[in-house]
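Hey team,

Filing this mostly as a record. A colleague (T.K.) asked me to run one chain through the structure pipeline before their review meeting, and I want the input and output archived in the tracker in case anyone asks later how it was produced. No errors, nothing strange. Just documentation.

Input sequence:
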Amino acid sequence: MDQQIIIRVANSNDVHYAKAITDEMEASALARGTGIAKRSPDYVSGKMQEGKAVIAHTEDGTWVGFCYIEAWGHDKFVANSGLIVSPPFRKSGVAKQIKKTIFDLSREKYPESKIFGLTTGLAVMKINSELGYEPVTYSELTDDDEFWKGCKACVNYDILMSKERKNCMCTAMLYDPADHYEAAETAEDFNTNSKLYERFMKVKQSRLLKLLRKKDPASRLKNRSLLQYFFNLLP
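Output structure:
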């Protein structure tokens, strides 16, 4: 880890990393007990060849991290998906650098598109807020069926469908180039409410949605309106 980490747009010369990347994506999802849309090495290779991915590696070619772009709804929406960092390089700040690079690439390729993401991780939410993303309800995301089909590999897919794609264990975040706050404002809001967000995240990821839907326990929460907005607990 003493070597310099190079973060750049991936290309066709990087396809040999694809299998290691998808294997780590799956292993990481299993370890978290949540799940992500499963992607094949061929799919990841295609993103590299299209110039719609960012890869991080050391000077000697050791794979460090990866993320890619997906466009939905006739390019009205863009998702920065599949963010993964190799275990030896986690907590080094590289994830934040990858997210910034893929965000900039998305803005370059799709300047008019809304950029969104679904995440179960507070750390990713923090990074997103520093880029100008805001927490939103699922109704503000793409209605493209192909995007939602990608969730079938997730262990929480039954929850998603039972909620008619209006809510799940992930938190939705959105960057709208036509109507957004400055990154400094969204970052400040996240930092101000981070403890509250963390507590709500733990509750949600503990699959206590039934408890939260009951009137009495929900009424004891000090900030129920924020809970409803942040975690999309809509009627």
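Quick notes for T.K.: The beta strands are 5-9, 53-58, 63-72, 77-85, 114-119, 134-136, 171-175. The chain has ten helices and seven strands.
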